[in-house]
């Protein structure tokens, strides 16, 4: 097979096309810049967040025994000897919070929430969310991730340290112990990242997509940790330049790599819904929101008579789109006044007879009347005017016309 024939066959490969789509999304969302922003936020919020969690758990009798597990879990991320100074300092936090007041604890919570706010903004950008959730729900999500996430980790870590680790067969086979510990770490990372992917973005994320993305991201984090530890032990020469300050640039680089990996997993997770029904091919070719908007409004019109709405999972069956792109389209239709959202159901906000296709064309394709009345604008308008006049019909009329077309072409052409 010639190289040209191989390339032609490769371009027709579904997985290859999806990888191209994924690479384009990485470039579009500028993961490097977002990772750098989160690295800076982490450096300012790490100690307040850890201090608040230890303060909360230490002053809650039911969870007091788990406060030490939080530090053990954080130390597992900083297992390299280059970070001994950092882990030693974090280990002194429990001895310093005895006289911490409620006001001071509240300030620490605000600092931790600031980091969560930056994470939410970044995730919403990846999932193409323009309008964030209401303040009350944001606070609730922050508390769930900040408290329940580490609490789940502490419980699982305690189960490992006090029960599984001391089993007879674990002590007899050290290799099995290391393997079991790696599996537990993978489980913990997957659990936390799953919660982040599933709860933080203000967009519907399927559980299967969030779980698969979290698993792949967790696996990548564990591998990167091992590689970074090996690099520090074998190839690190930072101490020759920075001396006692060598831990600072290493720590910043390490945090940056972790965030870059996590955000890459977020981009992958948001892209998984595009893999189904080959929605990524549509993104590679064009982004015809005009046609998709008509499809969405047509489906919603079927529920307008009985006042029953559709969940986004049901709407997606009629359009070839990923959940992030579909959610963005629904948000825009809501801003234009065509749709409304009640709880988890989407409905038409106006009667189908009042929705003009020409107005949709004007919003999603090109205005019928160019803003600039120069020669270019007048020429453009003269070209689109004949076709634009055919769009001067309502959505109700379009649905009737669609029924007539269906009779003449009973078999729909797949995308």
Give a short summary of the structure:
The protein contains 20 helices and two strands. It has 415 residues and is mainly α. Strands 1-2 form a two-stranded antiparallel sheet.
Description:
With 415 residues, the protein is mainly alpha-helical. Helices cover 72% and strands 2% of the residues. A two-stranded antiparallel ribbon has the order 1-2. The protein is elongated, with a radius of gyration of 27 Å.
Task: Give the SSE map.
Blueprint: H1 3-11, H2 14-29, H3 31-58, H4 67-77, H5 84-91, H6 93-96, H7 102-126, H8 135-162, H9 168-172, H10 174-199, H11 207-234, H12 238-242, H13 247-275, H14 279-285, H15 289-301, H16 312-315, H17 323-335, E1 339-342, E2 345-348, H18 357-364, H19 375-390, H20 395-408
Antiparallel strand pairs: 1-2
Helix pairs in contact: 2-13, 2-14, 3-4, 3-7, 3-13, 4-8, 7-8, 8-10, 10-11, 11-13, 15-18
Q: Helical residue percent?
A: over 70%
**Number of E strands:** 2
Helical/strand content category: mainly alpha
Q: How many alpha or pi helices? A: 20
Global outline: elongated
Strand content: under 5%
Spatial strand order of the main sheet: 1-2
Rg: 27 Å
Tally of separate domains: 2
Written as H for each helix and E for each strand, in order along the chain, the element string is HHHHHHHHHHHHHHHHHEEHHH
Q: What's the N-to-C terminus distance?
A: 29 Å
Q: Provide the low-confidence segments as ranges.
A: none
Largest sheet: 2 strands, antiparallel
Nearest-integer average pLDDT: 78
């Amino acid at each position: 097979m010639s190289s040209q024939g191989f390339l032609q066959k490769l371009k027709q490969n579904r997985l290859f096309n999806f990888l191209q789509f994924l690479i384009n999304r990485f470039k579009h969302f500028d993961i490097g810049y977002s990772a750098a922003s989160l690295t800076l936020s982490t450096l300012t919020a790490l100690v307040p967040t850890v201090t608040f969690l230890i303060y909360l758990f230490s002053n809650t009798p039911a969870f007091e025994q788990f406060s030490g597990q939080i530090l053990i879990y954080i130390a597992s991320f900083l297992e390299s000897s280059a970070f001994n100074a950092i882990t030693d300092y974090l280990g002194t936090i429990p001895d310093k919070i005895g006289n911490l007041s409620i006001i001071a604890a509240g300030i620490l919570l605000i600092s931790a929430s600031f980091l969560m706010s930056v994470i939410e903004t970044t995730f919403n950008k990846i999932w193409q969310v323009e309008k964030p959730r209401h303040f009350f729900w944001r606070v609730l999500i922050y508390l769930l991730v900040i408290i329940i996430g580490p609490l789940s980790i502490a419980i699982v870590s305690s189960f490992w340290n006090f029960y599984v680790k001391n089993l007879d067969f674990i002590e007899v086979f050290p290799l099995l112990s290391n393997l079991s510990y790696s599996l537990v770490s993978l489980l913990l990372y997957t659990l936390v990242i799953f919660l982040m992917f599933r709860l933080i973005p203000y967009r519907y994320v399927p559980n299967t997509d969030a779980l698969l993305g979290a698993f792949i991201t967790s696996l990548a984090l564990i591998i990167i940790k091992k590689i970074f530890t090996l690099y520090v032990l074998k190839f690190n020469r930072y101490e020759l330049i920075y001396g006692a300050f060598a831990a600072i640039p290493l720590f910043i680089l390490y945090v940056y790599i972790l965030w870059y990996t996590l955000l890459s997993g977020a981009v992958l997770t948001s892209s998984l819904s595009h893999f189904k029904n080959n929605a990524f091919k549509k993104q590679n070719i064009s982004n015809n929101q005009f046609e998709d908007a008509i499809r969405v409004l047509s489906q919603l019109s079927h529920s307008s008579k009985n006042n029953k709405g559709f969940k986004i999972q049901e709407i997606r069956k009629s359009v070839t789109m990923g959940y992030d792109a579909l959610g963005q389209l629904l948000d825009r239709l809501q801003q234009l006044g065509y749709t409304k959202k009640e709880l988890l159901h989407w409905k038409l906000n106006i009667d189908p007879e009042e929705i003009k296709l020409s107005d949709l064309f004007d919003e999603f394709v090109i205005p019928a009347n160019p803003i600039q009345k120069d020669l270019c604008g007048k020429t453009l308008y003269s070209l689109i005017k004949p076709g634009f006049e055919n769009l001067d019909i309502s959505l109700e009329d379009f649905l009737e016309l669609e029924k007539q077309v269906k009779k003449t072409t009973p078999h729909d052409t797949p995308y």
